[in-house]
Amino acid sequence: MEITALYYLLPALFMFCAGVYGFITRKNMIAMLISLELMLNGVDMNFVIFNRFLFPGSMEGMYFTLFAIGIAAAETAVAIAIIVNLFRSKGNVDVTGLNEMKF
Amino acid sequence: MDATLPIIILALPLFMFLLLGLAGVKMSHKAAAWLGILGMGTTATLSYITAFTYFFSQNPEFVSATGERLQHVVFNLTWLAFTPDLVISLGFLLDPISALMLVVITTISFMVHLYSLGYMEGERGFQRYYAFLSLFSFSMLGLVVATNIFQMYIFWELVGASSYLLIGFFYTKHSAVSASKKAFIVTRFADLGFLIGILVLSYYSQTFDFIRLTTDSSWVLASTGGATFMGASVLTWALVLIFMGGMGKSAMLPLHIWLPDAMEGPTPVSALIHAATMVVAGVFLVARMFPVYILEGSATTIIVVVGALTAFYAAMVACTQIDIKRVLAFSTISQIAFMMVSLGVASSGNGEVCHHGLGYMASLFHMFTHAMFKALLFLGAGALIHAVHSNDYTAMGGLRKYMPITHWTFLIGCLAIAGIPPFSGFFSKDEILSAAYAWSPYVGIWMTVVAALTAFYMFRLYYLIFWWNNPDYGHHTPHDSPWCMNVPLVFLAAVSCVAGFIPFGHFVTWNRMPYDIHLDPVIAVSSVVIALLAIALATRMYARENSLPARFRAAMPRLWDWCYHRFYWDELYIFITHRIIFNGICRPIAWFDRHIIDGTMDSFATLANRASDEIKPLQSGQIQQYVWIYLMGALALGVITILCLI
């Protein structure tokens, strides 16, 4: 049995959808952040997969994924800092309580 | 003539206004007043020099070889050049009447500046008062030296504005505020006519310039090409509308209602603005346009009729008023009406002057003498009010013993206005009566009756103030005023004694050719006899306290009521404005504005508000809801794209 791109893409799609679902349904901001990382990783996998199957001679997709992982780490650090500050001022990290900026 | 002096004459009062208006609050009362007096004194001196040079230097710029006095434009700057034809200039025109007015205005203004030092002492806003006086002097000087009718209109409005400011000087007093508004609105309404008149006249004549309009004016009539409007020629319309502006400023019937109320202002202001200078602006305007006015007999006839009616009306009302300033105000209206009649009768009605244009000279002569003695009377009244703290003669009486200077100067003023020789009013009034008799005996007789009434009400006033009885003056006995108030009284009284002997015909005539005045002995003697009879009647009725005035009043209650209530003109105005204009016109317009125009705009706003209320919940602040909507939107777009591709 030949391993085609589809076998790689399906788990990536599943990871992305799980991330979207988690982002929409979870009220805890940490859980939302995790879901966000899931989505990001699903997309990163896509980069690697398409690079591997469509342009096997080049490595741009691989490097781009490494960049994205690095940036995602930095971004997570910022997000965590925000969440920690929110926790300090409000006492919880429930996203539904953060609606002071509406209209 | 060098333009330096005229420019300083105009610029100095303006500079004083700016200086006192901007820096006045930082100055002491004394410093501000003396600055104002000094500025006005300098202006007066310069004006005397200018007028003296004009009248006596025999310079070919001012007098032609035949002896005619020329109209000399000292400078004329283009201010607004809209098109080659429509140019508005600002300039300085020196001719007999503007030189005369320069002298009158600066003299009275200087006297009033000096007088106010005592009269307004310690008032709040003292510096502001002097600033406004300077503004008024500037505007009035600009008005009389105007080279064109538009410049005159600009300064005309400035004069109205400064009059408004000065009437409402005591702005915490409700009556003063409403009086100032009334004066402004009434004169402004009249000025609408003036403006339309200017536009009509200049539309046909293609010029604003006075010299062009008044030199060989028959072309003005030709320029209208015989156009008519509602049965009258357009030139008549233009002249009558311009005269309407003069009616407003000079308080002619039926636009006189603001002048008696204007007495709410400080008394020196009444003397300066509402007796001597501003209110004669209407006379000055007609005099300035006189060569055009004689082209249209109907316009001058209207002037005569309006003037004659006003003169009689105001004299009747003056006989019954209690407030001494109101008496003087109605007397002013009556005397200005004399001048108007005099100008009207100078035209024979068929494009020629009547009786060598005597009326023109008489009118300006009377303007000159009237300015002096009426300012004197007002300043005297101010001294009386200052002494007894009331405007009503009921609080006065028997004052001759306590205030000798005021008494004698006031008596001279009364004799002058009554037309008793050798005081100045006799000469000028006599010329007016001669001109009136020459135009029509009826007008002459009518004006003689008014002159008799004048003598009667002035001496009624005089006796009620200085004789009659000795009431209780309250906490202190009245006494003469400080020197700065007495000096103007004595000066003006002296002028009123001698001004009649000025050979006025040598200076101001309608065609600027000098001629000798002759007194008509019949008219002179008869008018003096009638005036003396009127004075005798006043003496009989008012010299000592008696019941005669009350009996007169009881004998003619209806007439007395009408006179006392000024023939109910104010009530008529209230009725017209409140009932007819406010109810019939303003309210429907207000309704239309509020409901139709505002309503349309409001409904737009309401619609936008509603729409925003509807879509506002979309921005809930719930991040997950946004994501959900975004996701659905993205999916929907994806589906649509795919469907399109298939």
Topology (elements, then pairings):
The complex is a heterodimer of chains A (103) and B (646).
Chain A: H1 5-25, H2 29-54, H3 60-90
Chain B: H1 4-23, H2 29-56, E1 72-81, E2 87-94, H3 96-119, H4 126-144, H5 149-167, H6 174-205, H7 210-214, H8 218-223, E3 228-229, E4 232-233, H9 234-249, H10 258-261, H11 267-276, H12 281-288, H13 290-293, H14 297-318, H15 324-345, H16 358-388, H17 404-418, H18 424-439, H19 441-466, H20 483-498, H21 521-542, H22 548-555, H23 557-564, H24 569-615, H25 623-645
Antiparallel strand pairs in B: 1-2, 3-4
Helix pairs in contact in B: 1-2, 1-4, 2-3, 2-4, 3-4, 3-11, 3-16, 3-20, 4-5, 5-6, 6-9, 9-12, 9-14, 11-15, 11-16, 12-15, 14-15, 14-19, 15-16, 15-18, 15-19, 16-17, 16-18, 16-20, 17-19, 17-20, 18-19, 18-21, 19-21
CATH architecture descriptor of chain A: Orthogonal Bundle
Shape of chain B: globular
Order of helices and strands of chain A: HHH
User: Would you report the number of β strands of chain A?
Assistant: 0
Distinct helical segment count of chain A: 3
> Could you state the order of secondary-structure elements of chain B as H and E?
HHEEHHHHHHEEHHHHHHHHHHHHHHHHH
Relative strand content of chain A: under 5%
Q: Which structural category fits the helices and strands of chain B?
A: mainly alpha
Q: Give the largest interface.
A: A-B, 12 and 10 residues
Number of helices of chain B: 25
Major sheet of chain B: size, sense and barrel closure?
2 strands, antiparallel
Helical amount of chain B: 55-70%
**Which percent bin holds the helix content of chain A?**
over 70%
Question: Tell me, what's the shape of chain A?
Answer: elongated
Gyration radius of chain B, in Å? 30 Å
Helix/strand-derived category of chain A reads mainly alpha
